Predict the structure.
Amino acid sequence: MTISGDDLLLARAARWEATMPDRVFLTQPHSGGQTTDYTWRETMDQARRVATHLAGLNLPPRSQVAIVGKNSAHWIMADLAIWMAGHVSVPLYPTLSADTARKILEHSEARLLFVGKLDDWPTIRAGVPTGLPLIELPLAPETGALRWQDVVARSAPLAQIPQRDPAELSTIIYTSGTTGTPKGVMLSFSGMVAAMVADPATIDVTPQDRYLSYLPLAHSYERYVGEGFCMFHGIRVYFAESLESFIQDLQRARPTLFCSVPRLWMKFQSGVHAKVPPQKLQRLLQIPIVRSLVRRKILRGLGLDQTRYAASGAAPLAPEVIDWYRRLGLNLLEGYGMSENHSYSHASDADSVRVGYVGRSRPGVETRISEHGEVLVKSPGMMMGYFKAPELTAEVVTADGFLRTGDRGELDDEGRLRITGRVKELFKTSKGKYVAPAPIENQLMSAGLLEQCCVTGAGFPQPHAVGVLAENLRALVDAGRVQQAELTPKLGALLDQVNRKLESHEQLQFIAVAKVAWAIENEFLTPTMKMRRARIEERYAPLAQGWYAAGQNVLWE
């Protein structure tokens, strides 16, 4: 596959600037629902002016320049400006601890930091190395640094956008840290557009399409879709204002393309069930006269009534949940990829969906399963390696160029991939039997009682599960409208139902219900809402012995 300079994101942005300068590219909410639109002309003008400023700082060529902040129009403008100035962008999650922020900024050798929209600037600020220059983006907290608006006002637009080499380093994306210290994934300019060039017909899109960007742009998946895919195709990007306004943000954008992670798909489902009990909804969907009305009303309420393509990624989604959305008429498909191949690996095709599978290898991607059941992938989006860590690169890339994904999987007769868990997540009971937790967790969460779940139990005769009640049930319990005693038999029935489907060594001794939901803020979840399994196991390990000794099938922390 050959990628030319005209395929790169900078060149594509310049193309839209020239051919449709007055079409809106970015829509930024602020001040309680007000919005500001930025056309391609305005977007590129601001990026060009900031690029002029960066070029005038006389940084060494191809210096690392970092961005920290929630998704925003100016986050993307800053990224463009960094590339225009001949440098390399380093995105940071807006929820990092001071220690992790410091490690990344120092390890990446960042020469400057753009500070964007943040909930907790003091924490991030404590991790910023002394003397590192800052530029404050619009919507950022007060930093006392040079403001983006002032840079734009006093700088002339960069007249000539440089032609970047497709093989040149474009960005360093630090992994979200489910285990250990984040690693810096180096992506080339060609790697960032490999998916669009190799597989132009994945879905039929035009500049009339709309996308809501809210998953962190510091993560490879959102960087690929929310920035790269939309910039490549000229798609309009809306941003979310806050977690509290998320449904309103969705309803404003009415996205035709929408991507999310399993936890949010399940929260949407839980929200619907809070208003329409599952049994009632199932009955309504079986009545021909009202079925279409119910579907439209639910999808309109979620802001997804105009969505042509909906995707779930980052972790497996329970097949029952996928089926639920498809019964509502939403064409929900699963995809699979990693930071190390810029999320270009596997995706479901609308005409060959197999629920529970993440689809076939995309064009140009090769897949094989190792003798130990590990998924190995070779992709055009493959990273250049881990930044300043050749030994780690050698550990995950085979001699013939395949990425060791760390995921266990299997292929069906049509080449569709099913992820069955993480290689390192397998644990052994005291009986010497191995247990793969992810499939069991999905079964437990598919009933709508639990929205988060961790199956564990290494060293015990049988595994067990620790779970968090679905949000609507937590609200009822907190309000005193539902008692724990009312939910205990339902959870017990769920346990029995799941255990009947499992091998004897996999069957769960009990379910323990956690007091507090697992969140990014309490470090039980990564910034992309993946479960930090080691952190959760460490938190509940002191209670496990007592839970086993209690001899009950459902316990409450």
In short: The CA atoms of residues 12 and 125 lie 35 Å apart.
